[in-house]
Specification:
The chain is α/β, with parallel strands linked by helices and about 200 residues long. It is built from five helices and six strands; from the N terminus they run βαββαβαβαβα.
């Protein structure tokens, strides 16, 4: 799912880098593009190399957006729920039982879409469809909104031209930060016992 609303034009290079990595993955994909409406651009099963045809719209100046085929129809606000629902319908239509969905967006969802967005994400959870997010130039507030919806599922930020890095989780699903903090506390307790242990008197 690729967000093509006007607000994403602030980091077109970031979107282009993400598309380039996906194109090189040699996987079978589908593509839903959206702003306030959603459109199925590639059906599931499309070779990922087909994404290369879109790269020219994300490598040049922002003015290249005006020449894109979606400039007139996908340039308004953002309603992520419409794309989530369409992507889920596409997976069901094509009988894809082991599919997952990746959302590439600045996460700037319209305020009046929040209820529908929450319901759509809940539908993914109930259906057991993995949903991952690649945040492109997202604000901290928008990241927190989606992190709250996703629960323990991490958001993959893309900053400073680096590749998307998944936030670490332990095998039990606990956030890595929580595991690290617990480890530090255990180390401090062990150090305390070692240094501050009771004095032992030897027998004469």
């Amino acid at each position: 799912m690729l967000d093509l609303s006007w607000s994403t034009s602030s980091d077109y290079k970031g979107i282009g880098a993400t598309l380039r990595r996906l194109a090189a993955s040699n996987r079978r994909i589908g593509l839903v593009v959206f702003s306030d409406a959603a459109y199925e651009m590639f059906p599931p099963g499309t070779p990922s190399r087909e994404l290369r045809s879109l790269l020219r719209f994300f490598t040049g100046p922002k003015s290249s957006r005006a020449a894109s085929p979606w400039a007139s129809s996908l340039s308004g606000g953002t309603r992520v729920s419409t794309a989530l629902l369409l992507a889920r319908d596409v997976l069901a239509r094509e009988h894809v039982s082991n599919g997952s969905v990746v959302l590439v967006s600045d996460l700037g969802d319209a305020p009046n879409d929040r209820a529908a967005l929450s319901a759509a994400v809940l539908g993914y959870v109930r259906a057991g469809i993995p949903l991952r997010v690649v945040a492109v130039d997202a604000t901290a507030e928008n990241e927190q909104l989606f992190q709250g919806l996703l629960g323990s599922r991490p958001i993959q930020p893309r900053r400073n031209g680096s590749s998307a890095t998944r936030a670490g989780t332990s095998s039990s699903g606990l956030p890595l930060a929580l595991v690290v903090v617990a480890g530090v506390l255990l180390a401090l307790l062990a150090f305390n016992e070692l240094v501050c242990a009771r004095l032992r008197w030897s027998e004469r």
